[in-house]
């Protein structure tokens, strides 16, 4: 894959969740902005924080796995959109989608929708796990986007640790 194609895939993956404007702070594992406040551990060694023009609250990239993990919150107590519709919004731009699993799981005292699938982004195969949660007037979404197979499996461990650390504040 050319460097330009790699960059496009990376930027599009980071844009997978564009519900809210960025501009918050992330200190001592706590993200704060004008809308939301939540605790979320960084994915750990081998992951570096990245920023992409207010497309998400937090994002990390693993060069070794070629993967991106992102987290985002958008708060509007007047919105009552089903978790499935919110998940579909995150998939804009992905083609040839193959659903591996979709299930509701407890998270932060609520029910979250977890979706695992394979899809293409600009013709490049990707494997994704999306988690969408609604709590206290906010929508929280999390995404892992990685090359399929062993690289996805390696990145999944960091993603699961990150999800397990999530708490609203």
Descriptive report:
It contains 3 helices and 11 strands, in the order αββββββαββββαβ. With 169 residues, the chain is of the alpha+beta class. The protein has a single domain (3-168), classed as Protein Transport Mog1p, Chain A. The strands form 2 sheets. The chain has a 7-stranded antiparallel beta sheet with strand order 4-5-6-10-9-8-7, sandwiched between helices. It is globular.
Quick recap:
21% of the residues lie in helices and 44% in strands. With 169 residues, the chain is α+β, with helices and mostly antiparallel strands. It has one domain: Protein Transport Mog1p, Chain A (3-Layer(aba) Sandwich), CATH 3.40.1000.
Provide keyphrases for this structure:
Protein Transport Mog1p, Chain A; seven-stranded antiparallel sheet; disordered N terminus; 169 residues; alpha+beta; 21% helix
Element layout with pairings:
Layout lengths: L2 H12 L10 E3 L2 E3 L4 E3 L8 E2 L8 E5 L4 E9 L7 H8 L3 E14 L2 E12 L2 E12 L2 E9 L3 H16 L1 E2 L1
Antiparallel strand pairs: 1-2, 2-3, 3-11, 4-5, 5-6, 6-10, 7-8, 8-9, 9-10
Q: Can you tell me the residue ranges where pLDDT is under 50 for at least 5 consecutive residues?
A: 3-8, 14-22
Briefly note the CATH topology name: Protein Transport Mog1p, Chain A
**Average pLDDT rating:** 89
Shape: globular
Tell me the Rg in angstroms.
15 Å
Percent helix, as a range, is: 10-25%
Q: What spatial order of strands do you see in the largest sheet?
A: 4-5-6-10-9-8-7
The largest sheet, given as strand count, sense and whether it forms a barrel, is: 7 strands, antiparallel
CATH uppermost class: Alpha Beta
CATH architecture: 3-Layer(aba) Sandwich
Number of separate helices: 3
What separation lies between the terminal Cα atoms?
42 Å
């Amino acid at each position: 894959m050319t460097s330009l194609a790699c960059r496009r895939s990376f930027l599009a993956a980071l844009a997978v969740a564009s519900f809210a404007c960025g501009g918050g702070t992330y200190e001592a594992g706590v993200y704060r902005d004008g809308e939301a406040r939540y605790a979320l551990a960084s994915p750990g060694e081998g992951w570096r924080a990245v920023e992409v023009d207010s497309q998400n609250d937090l994002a990390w990239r693993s060069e070794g796995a070629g993967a991106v993990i992102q987290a985002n919150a958008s708060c509007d107590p007047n919105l009552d959109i089903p978790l499935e519709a919110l998940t579909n919004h995150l998939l804009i731009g992905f083609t040839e989608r193959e659903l591996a699993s979709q299930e509701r799981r407890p998270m932060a005292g609520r029910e979250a929708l977890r979706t695992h699938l394979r899809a293409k982004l600009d013709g490049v195969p990707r494997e994704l796990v999306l988690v969408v949660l609604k709590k206290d007037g906010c929508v929280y979404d999390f995404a892992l986007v990685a090359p399929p197979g062993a690289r996805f499996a390696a990145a999944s461990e960091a993603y699961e640790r990150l999800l397990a650390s999530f708490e609203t504040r």
